[in-house]
Amino acid sequence: MPDFNALTPALLVQLEAIVGPAHVATAQRVPAEEYATYGQDHTEDLHFAPDVVLTPGTPEEISEIMRLCHAARVPVTARGAGTGLSGGALPVHHGVVLRMARFNKILQIDERNLQATVEPGVVTEAFQNAVQAVGLFYPPDPASKGSCFLGGNLSQSSGGPKAVKYGVTKDYVLNLQVVLPTGEIIWTGANTLKNATGYNITQLMVGSEGTLGIVTKAVFRLLPYPKQNILMLVPFRQEAQAAEAVSAVFRAGIVPSGMEFMEREAIAWSSDYLKIPLTLPEDIKAHLLIELDGQDLEYLYKEAEQVYEVLERYDVGEILLADTATQKDELWRIRRNIGNSVRYNSVYKEEDTVVPRAELPALLAGVKEIGARYGFKTVCYGHAGDGNLHVNIIRGDLDDEKWNVGLREPISEIFRLCVRLGGTISGEHGIGLVQKGYIGIALPDINLNLMRGIKQVFDPHGIMNPGKIF
Amino acid sequence: MPDFNALTPALLVQLEAIVGPAHVATAQRVPAEEYATYGQDHTEDLHFAPDVVLTPGTPEEISEIMRLCHAARVPVTARGAGTGLSGGALPVHHGVVLRMARFNKILQIDERNLQATVEPGVVTEAFQNAVQAVGLFYPPDPASKGSCFLGGNLSQSSGGPKAVKYGVTKDYVLNLQVVLPTGEIIWTGANTLKNATGYNITQLMVGSEGTLGIVTKAVFRLLPYPKQNILMLVPFRQEAQAAEAVSAVFRAGIVPSGMEFMEREAIAWSSDYLKIPLTLPEDIKAHLLIELDGQDLEYLYKEAEQVYEVLERYDVGEILLADTATQKDELWRIRRNIGNSVRYNSVYKEEDTVVPRAELPALLAGVKEIGARYGFKTVCYGHAGDGNLHVNIIRGDLDDEKWNVGLREPISEIFRLCVRLGGTISGEHGIGLVQKGYIGIALPDINLNLMRGIKQVFDPHGIMNPGKIF
Question: Measured between CB atoms, does B458 come within 8 Å of chain A?
Fold first, then answer.
């Protein structure tokens, strides 16, 4: 554990000179309620207060901040929109929080090259809309896309429903401008689709949860926008069959653009939360939300027929084929708001389990069995096409002891099951703070020591988002 | 520069005990001609003799070899099929060459999860054929796919014609078993489509040119095999227009599965070399080979019509639409054998330039201008959809001085042009030995020092494929 120093008044004066007084917040200067938000994200009910919150405006300002903090051994934690689910943005060792909110510009949409250069404080959905306006497509779409920042997506390599066909954030990053913990500003690669020039520093940065540097610009590749899509909601009478059908669709040669699993309670809570009426017959235990997309509707209907043929092998209820844009939007809103509805209902812990997709039935059965054995309830949903199941452990009436300590063993069991099935402990939320204690289940010491060694190369004083991952 | 030791007779005895005498080759034990092949690859006419060539059979044997060589500070260079174009497999500091030829098994094709586990000595095309036999698709297809090894593809993140739609080797790797330079055996990740569990060691290994460890198993993701394709050969009267048309096709919303550029001489040399007759009217200066693929032929014809509409804007000759499997095969063989035909005609240096695809006309014009100014001839071809242009500098009657020294400045000019256009100095061949002197054009010291630091973490004695990249 590196030795950190607290922020001194002298350092605060220097930092203020860099960003200007309007961009400095401290517990003394802003209302307590506002200041508290900078120490929180969407992870459980955790809170850690920073010594100061800076909102820099340029990479050069961040560079100067990093040089000072590196020399003074004061921790620095970058903060996007605060929608993270593993505590990655929490300043657990206090020090400086760098709010990236002013890095909010789309610098260029290059229609000739199907690329865009953006700042990390751009909201994901705003970016998607901007490129769609010129016929282009940026697929990664986490559930929080309406508020999360691209910078946060980069730090966790966020996914979302479209990942099954289009991949996750890492698959769209060509090049990153990064301020290193020691203050240097680098570009990690080139603005090209291929690059075999030295080690892949770009992909090392993506998913490193803000522990290796601060992204200040990103160049993303884009695709032509798929003009057509078909969306269907498929009710299953057995959860395991819903999970099995996922694999069967792929084996039939179809790559859907969305393949989402929702157990009964997930869809029920979310439609209640949104006040969208939805018929849920008693015998329905789970749903798959399946989207097909492309440029040609006629061809998509052919694909949809093939999907129907696959589904006929299972015990499914009446399939709802969304036939208006409004209906599609409602179904997607239900899916996207499961997390919010769970949060609305109860404090919860979310485990971002991931396995090879055909192992999903085994994972789901295992989670339920472990929950029954230890006496807790889970609400499960997620990106079934990727084998990525979000397991929400509901606090309900669990006491503090059980909630804070008693869940460690069953969560470990769930993670050990993931690893046994060929999977790992996080698919898209990252390790951050809350999964740190479990990383040894997925990665042995030799792997962790390599990661620690890399961290040391980038950040010799360990000031960059300390207390995360390992 | 680390200090290396030569192989001692005592160490040779120990190494022989590990792999068995049948799997040890030295200059004394095998014919000179055979031994010479282990010091060469497809890069120019370079040759470096190893002290010993070992052909291990298991990761555990490699682990023992690495422990001994690490302790003795003897260099180790892994060797695939020796088809590399940047000298990555050349044992420039002598020592041990590890031939991976016995790692030639496809261990599992997992049809449930669309994944396969393979050893690195499997020939790329053999793997493609094996998965195709069960309806699956492994897209990366370097020109040498009939002889190159998957391990070599991993070390350079090889691409090929299909990269434009399907990405390169790195995009298919889920997990790697690696023997570290210090002898430990690790898995880098998990067998999942998504993974946000610590730093991306998998992608750090891919493209690291055998300098960080030795891949002993790889888990690849697969796709459903696209059953249909359309292939067209489009002749252009102006080279620049061929390069411009590439971008226009993408902007029309089409993502071809191949989009290859061949200047006149490239296609002429290759068809001569293969003795495939091809009509080449006097006024044709370049060709695009465009492939569309998918599951539905009817839809592909719609797309082809859209491609024709785009091409009508340019000064093109008669488009050849390949209408039999044989004709398609011939066209692809011509494209794939350009490198061989150039090698057959003359000693050459190949520069693996890459730029954002719309900058291809500027790159091509620049290369020709530089060639004219310095007095050398180039034959250019490559993956236009990726902006990846292979520039072959033909030795012809250049004298030794001009060939060995005089080309440094014009090659530097070509690479500086790539970087100015947003590109870099290698798209898919790697830096290896021959581009090492130019890497500073693409990456400043701060980037290179990060890479050196990472190398030091993995390989404290620097014995793993020394003398490459930086």
Answer: yes
Q: Output the pLDDT for position A44.
A: 80
Contacts of B112 in chain A (CB under 8 A): 247, 251, 356, 358
pLDDT digits (tens, 9 = 90+) for B97-133: 999 999 999 999 999 999 999 999 999 999 999 999 9
Please report the residues numbered 22 through 41 in chain A whose beta carbons come closer than 8 angstroms to any beta carbon of chain B: none
Which of A192, A254, A446, A452 to probe the B interface (max B CBs under 10 A)?
Answer: A192
Return the CATH fold of B340-443.
Alpha-Beta Plaits (3.30.70)
Band of residue B45 on the pLDDT scale cut at 50, 70, 90: confident
Report domain B9-102+453-458's class.
alpha beta
Same fold, B228-339 and B340-443: yes
Which residue does chain B place closest to A306, by CA atoms?
Answer: B295
Tell whether B132 lies on the interface with A, counting CB pairs under 8 A. no
Domain A345-445: give its CATH code. Answer: 3.30.70.2740
Q: Which chain B residues touch A194 with a CB distance below 8 Å?
A: 157, 159, 163, 168, 354, 383, 386-388, 427-428
Nearest-CB residue to B450 (from A164, A195, A457):
A457
Per CATH, the number for A9-101+453-458 is 3.30.43.10
CATH of domain B106-224: 3.30.465.10
What residues of A are in contact with residue B212 (Cβ under 8 Å)? 199
pLDDT score of A1 more than 60 = no
The residue ranges of every structural domain in chain B are 9-102+453-458, 106-224, 228-339, 340-443
Q: Are A142 and A124 in contact (CB under 8 A)?
A: yes
- Which ipTM score applies to this complex? 0.96
Per-residue model confidence as pLDDT tens digits over A107-136: 999 999 999 999 999 999 999 999 999 999
User: Which fold would CATH assign to domain A228-339?
Assistant: Alpha-Beta Plaits (3.30.70)
